[in-house]
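dude i think i finally got it to work??
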Amino acid sequence: MAPFDLFHASTENTSFEGYDMPTGTLIVPNHLLYVHHDPENFRPEGFINPKGKIHKKEYIIPFSIGERVCAEETLARDGIFLFLTKSFQQFEFQADPGKPMPSMNKPVQFFDFLDPPKFFVIVTDRS
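look at this
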C-alpha cells in the first residue's frame, strides 16, 4: 500500500484539528499514520477482532471511496490475502543479519514508496 493517496484540494475555507485551510489548500491523505503506530513490531491485533475475525477499519481506505471506489477491490483484497497467507504458511521470513536494517526514524517523504530503502530478507522453506 502506498503511504499517500491521491492529492486533493479543499473546496472551501475550513479548519481541521486547529489548522485553518483556505480554499485550494493541498490535502494529502497519509495512510501510514493510521496503520503503523508501532512500526518496529508486527501487531495483528489491530486488524483482528476478539473473535479472531478480520476487522475492517473504515479509516484505512487503500481503494478510495465513494463514486471513485475501485471496482475490483474485493478481487484485489482476496488476491493479496491469499498470496500473503500462502507465503507465510510456506515460508519463514527473517531480516538478513549481515545487512543493515533501514532506519525507522527517518521521516516519510512524498513519493518515498517509489524508491524505498533497501531491505534484505532471508526466505526459507518451512518444510
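The chain has a mean pLDDT of 78.
im so relieved honestly
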